[in-house]
RNA sequence: GGAGAGAUGGCAGAGUGGACGAUUGCGUCGGUCUUGAAAACCGUUGAGCCCUCACGGGUUCCGGGGGUUCGAAUCCCCCUCUCUCCGCCA
């Protein structure tokens, strides 16, 4: 949710919202509605004050005076009712209009669309395509079975098997160790949440068709543990001296992937269900830009520790999504496609999400809205597939990155099958 | 799944239609006393929004949403959650 006060007072804030792709005319409409709502609120409250005084007076009045006073108060109530009705109409309209205004982009974000990103760093070698792409080698080495999974559950499901499972849990342990070093508290979150949480976390109504619904129970499967972590401190006031609070959520994630027919149909790249370690930070507004850089550093550390070639880009304003003021994508080189593809991303939501969640911080100068950030620590399935390709060796085996060996006891995968 | 009880400020816990944003206790913060501390005593102590340069004023909030009434923490309806007992279960 946007800060209406800043939207009307700060031209830069307004311009930065427009950079995200919202119509300037829409913002003007929001501001007009805001002004109308404030005027109506002032009038309504004045009437209510009058009405409150009248009611209290009845309580004090002598019995013989009551009749007349009640009649007078009743008339006041009529006027108040009309004013309240008008106010609630304007407020509903305002809320509806304000809800679609995106969080303004930070000044360091390049203006533009999907292709206008800025490359920040490039690390590692862009290796040539391996003998087998991740889907093929997964099937060949008995690590991934999509054919049987399709019979079981439909397309975009997979059985992950054998050493891939060992690697999966090694990745979880590895990622948790990395984030724990920075004070992240591990959390296993609920994967089912109420509709209200989906709305407050900003996924409804916009991404409703991406979310699985359990209609009988009116519960929804989360697409990321971000939903559950963003809701953790709903309506709370956090102690300033305990911040920043950093959580590492681990959960399965569920996505309908509506509208992606024919895209990334092989292997684990785009599936309906995958596991993920997600970072989520609550912090003081003064600190959030530092925290964003920390998230990015951790992400680079995790990926480079797995010896994967990657680059980091700053996503352009038009491709940010409504809540993010700035977003980095970390993309790993996918040799079979000879291009970089996303593995993690991290965003600063500033106070956009906290305003809706009503998560505040106690400070000496009163309470302020928290800033929230989120970023992937490790998307397990995708990371597995980048390992399958980038660490595939000439003999058809997969070399296990040093960093994972202590967690799974494997040096190489597929030696028996390949020979 | 069945039956019952409940949800009030940081916490505990009063309050069943009119001076209640709410008795009291603990905790908080400030002060008195003390070499210092404790104890004791005195005082202080919720949040959101609107108006105002400010001082200040108004309004809303007693789990959430609706309703009755001139007036609701209090009465009515719906929802959510918690506890106790029974059933089931990893």
Mind explaining what this structure looks like?
The protein is of the alpha+beta class. The chain folds into 2 domains: about 5-100, Orthogonal Bundle (Helix Hairpins), CATH 1.10.287.40; about 115-419, BirA Bifunctional Protein, domain 2. The chain contains 14 helices and 18 strands. The strands form 5 sheets. An 8-stranded mixed beta sheet has the order 1-11-12-13-16-10-9-4. A 3-stranded antiparallel beta sheet has the order 5-7-6. Strands 8-14-15 form a 3-stranded mixed beta sheet, with no helix packed on it. The longest helix has about 35 residues, at about 25-60. The radius of gyration is 27 Å and the shape is elongated. The mean pLDDT is about 90. The protein binds one RNA strand of 90 nucleotides through helix 3 and helix 4.
Secondary structure blueprint with pairings:
Layout: H1 4-9, H2 11-18, H3 24-60, H4 63-99, E1 118-123, H5 134-140, E2 144-145, H6 146-153, E3 159-160, H7 163-180, E4 185-188, E5 192-194, H8 195-200, E6 213-214, E7 219-221, H9 226-230, E8 237-239, E9 245-254, E10 273-283, H10 288-305, E11 310-314, E12 326-334, E13 339-348, H11 352-357, E14 360-363, E15 366-369, E16 371-379, H12 380-390, E17 398-399, H13 405-408, E18 412-413, H14 415-418
Parallel strand pairs: 4-9, 8-14
Antiparallel strand pairs: 1-11, 2-3, 5-7, 6-7, 9-10, 10-16, 11-12, 12-13, 13-16, 14-15, 17-18
Helix pairs in contact: 3-4, 5-12, 7-12
The protein binds one RNA strand of 90 nucleotides through helix 3 and helix 4.
